[in-house]
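Weekly structure sync, notes
Attendees: PL (lead), two postdocs, one rotation student
Agenda item 3: pending single-chain targets
PL asked that the sequence for the first pending target be pasted directly into the notes so everyone works from the same version. It is reproduced below exactly as submitted, 123 residues in total.
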Amino acid sequence: MKIFNFIPIPDPIKNTSSVASLKERLDWGEPALTIVDVRDSSAFNAIHIMGAVSIPMNELVARAIANLELIRDIYVYGETNEQTAAAAFNLRAAGYKNVAELLDGLAAWKAIGYPTEGFSAIT
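Predicted structure, written out during the meeting:
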């Protein structure tokens, strides 16, 4: 009898998410998600979560509507949990159904040692 070791399927997206939950989805190979960094462009260029896209708060809803389908799973983070919550609120108000606030954002991601990109990530 052969026993298979399957990688467990990650939980569906929730309104809030830990960085570990996001990393689990990424490691599983979940392609149907977008990580959105709502900090300003200079902060994003300095360092951000690997694979994240930069959409500053003042452009968030317009650019999301132009580029992301309403059923897309979106993980959003900002400078603070308050900015993250505001971004998630704005996306949900625009009709996005699957938005997760990434708790403690980049700081939590870096604290665990997950991969980052940007000028500060290289040094």
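Discussion points:
- Residues 16-118 form a domain with the Oxidized Rhodanese; domain 1 fold (CATH 3.40.250.10).
- The CA atoms of residues 75 and 114 lie 16 Å apart.
Action: rotation student to compare against the earlier draft before next sync.
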